[in-house]
Fold this sequence. Notes:
Elements: E1 8-15, H1 18-28, E2 32-38, H2 43-46, E3 53-58, E4 67-72, E5 85-93, H3 98-107, E6 112-113, E7 117-119, E8 122-128, E9 134-139, E10 161-167, H4 171-180, E11 184-190, E12 196-201, E13 210-215, E14 229-236, H5 239-251, E15 260-261, E16 265-271, E17 277-285, H6 310-315
Parallel strand pairs: 1-4, 5-9, 10-13, 14-17
Antiparallel strand pairs: 1-14, 2-3, 3-4, 5-10, 6-8, 7-8, 8-9, 11-12, 12-13, 15-16, 16-17
Bound molecules: zinc ion.
Amino acid sequence: MSPTVSGIHHVTAYAHDPQENVDFYTSVLGLRLVKQTVLFNNPSEVFRGPTMYHFYYADGTGTPGSVITFKPHHSIQHGQVGRGQATATAFTIPEGAVEYWVDRLDTADRATLYPVTDRFGRTVIRFQDHDGQPLELITGTSDIEPWTGGPVPAEHALRGFHGVTIHPDNAQLTADVLELMGYEQVDYQPTPQDGDWTRFRAEGVEHGQFIDLYNEPNMHKGRWGYGTVHHVAFRVDDDDQQQALRRRLRDAGHAPTSMKDRNYFHSIYFREPNGVNFEIATDPPGFLHDEPEDALGEKLMLPPFLQDRRAEVEAQRDDITVP
Ligand code: ZN
């Protein structure tokens, strides 16, 4: 069987202030902070500059397809959302939750809310967080159990990702990569004022299955920085499937990295032809392998290679309070 991805694993974005980031994603959106750790590429890079947090927000256990992650730091410049980026991250909400969320986001002083719209027959609430990060809540069904330990009642709570919008220069090139990873084009929607939308779906999953390509050539080019997405990670079952997909990507002329151990998943990375960073991440080992479920996200977790330098790491970071 040919290797395919099972939708989105996580989305990783840049943020500015660590505490403001925690407050927004837990207190406003009602997600659970399932892991606080630091950015780890390799030990020499970690200690080249100030230690950067890496926060993971998700459902109650960090189910792949519900996980949005942030790299917050005051030294990061303000980015610009535009072509060559993932330009919106969408979560699923139940059909009856639209009014609740419009009201909640409208009264949250940290969100910028835009008029409610419709895409592919579903209601879309578009908004930005305090950093300008573009987010959406889209009505639909999902097999994700909502996190009920936060301030949002279960009946309205977010149910994992709906999908991600990508704004390519050349939509066909990104479409080819998506199809190589197992996505199928399932819908198309032109809009009179701006561009057109093409929807792709990953088979066999009930959440995080959509990628929308938004083709609007007049939009400005994106620039990295806080308020923008750094990469979109796609799910595979295990290392074997990841390696099979890696071979297929290489055969098609892409340049995936070797496997990196990210402690909570194993990853390969490549840049798709329009410049968007893609990752292929394994479901195992997951977020429960180094902390019990009832204590997820409460304290700073370090990977094995940093554990004997905990004092040094902790001295370099801002303290945060998890609500
Ligand atoms: Zn990632």
